[in-house]
Amino acid sequence: MFSVDRGGNWFAYNSGIYGDWCVHLTFINSFLHRSWLWWLQDHPLAQGEPFRYPFLSHALTALIAWVAGGFQVPQSAETVIRTAWYTSVLALAFVPWLFWKGLEIIGLNWVQRALAIFIFTGNGGWGIFKLGLDPNKFPTNESSLNLKFSNFLIWQWLPQRSFLFALFHLALGIYFWRKKRHILSGLVLGLLIFSHVHSWIATGFLFWMLVLQSLKKIKWQPILKFSAAFAFSSLFGLAFEFRNRTGFSQPWNIFSPGWAQGHSSFFDFWWTNFGISIPLALCGVYFSKGLVKKLAISGLVLGLVACVIQFQPYDYDNLKIICYAYALLVPGIVTGVIVPLFNVTWKFSNKVATNTIGKYSGRFLAVTAIVLLTVSGYWDVTAFLNGAQKSHMFSPPDFAMAEAWVASIHDPDAVALTAPRPNHWLPALAGQPVVAGYAGWLWTWGIGWEKQTKLGRMLEDGSHDITAELLHAHKIRYVALDPNRLFYMTLGKSVMTSSNGVVIDIGE
């Protein structure tokens, strides 16, 4: 996930970590350094935009970091370390355990469970073969491949703690359902919208797909109790996340079939992204039985929906939905295709042929299918672990400046103006709200980044149009200056001085 060199510089192994973690660390540090009701105010990385992001995982991360620090706010570097540690534990231990228990519930034996987890974790398309299996290239980061089915481990779980906390949330809801606490289960799962919207969508979709497939034998009382509770708790999240959407520059929930942009053909798109997983999934739906079959059908329909409707402004976010669809399809692939191939013996008129070709050809096909299903994903993981295409995140001066700022006398809720570059220490490590954060994240979230970052770009360019009056008009109190922009010092008094920059207070 991260590496630290001898000079104390932090590097990210994944462009998702590089681009998104500055945002998530800002939210976590906002909970640590600001009042707990800050989330009812403006977005800490987009002044004037209401904060709508699912924040429950950030609040819990901040709480855990605070408790682990002896009920004291940890230093900025320690917060990053603990956040990375919690994420790694959840991704590498909790998710496999949860999948294992889920597969046990639906009736798979331990061999089938282990095989399903291996296949699921190694997911990926065949786009890597276009790279010639170059170990210095990280397939997920190769934009030319236009991959939409990137490996879940390195593109979803490690970069996105919200996804991991949502799985923990999901496990709790399933536990209450199995204990026949249907109202409590509905309340808990409805609140998924505060953890991870895509998990909330997938959970609701799966629930009603299972209901529709079980109409003849269903008991309606627990269904209605769960549905009412789920809808009740979901309403709070919907009201929070969809308030004042007027500032969004990109459409949400749009009909967009295909996703074939950037490929020579529709077939090339599917081959590059999914390989043989689609035909094997269809076979799994046909040959599997019982609850596994119902889950496989649900996964197939959910995957199709996620391939024609974008649930965020940009289509690659639908991978979060497809992750659930694939998890539902894999048990069907294992029990309906892989295991039967292992056990089949094709009979020939010649007994020797039956005991050799007939007995082992099915096993050969099964092993070949497993390899073809996982070679892309595990190659991606290998490149990830080798640190291919690392990106710089933070340096020791960033942590030092964040600590100095936290120790200074300042208003933690006042807005600061910074250069809109990735991983700026003031919001990411000190939790100070800014006019505009990393433009790349604002853009992907659908916020008009050109307008939002205008003042920051003026500051970065050294524009003399920045005046105290202009800053007051935008309700800005602090300005973070690089060493080459100290001529702005006339605008206010110094709050914090460092060899790497100065923060000035221009007053309220």
Written description of the protein model:
- The protein has 508 residues and is α+β, with helices and mostly antiparallel strands.
- The protein contains 20 helices and eleven strands.
- The strands form four sheets. Strands 8-9-11-10 form a four-stranded mixed sheet. It has a three-stranded antiparallel sheet with strand order 1-2-7.
- The longest helix has 35 residues, at 351-385.
- It starts with a strand and ends with a strand.
Main pleated sheet: 4 strands, mixed
Mean pLDDT: 81
Report the strand count: 11
Radius of gyration: 25 Å
What is the terminal separation in angstroms?
41 Å
Report the uncertain regions: none
Helix content: 55-70%
Label the overall shape.
Answer: globular
- Counted by DSSP, the helix tally is 20
Strand order, main sheet: write it out: 8-9-11-10
- Overall SS class: alpha+beta
* % residues in beta strands: 5-15%
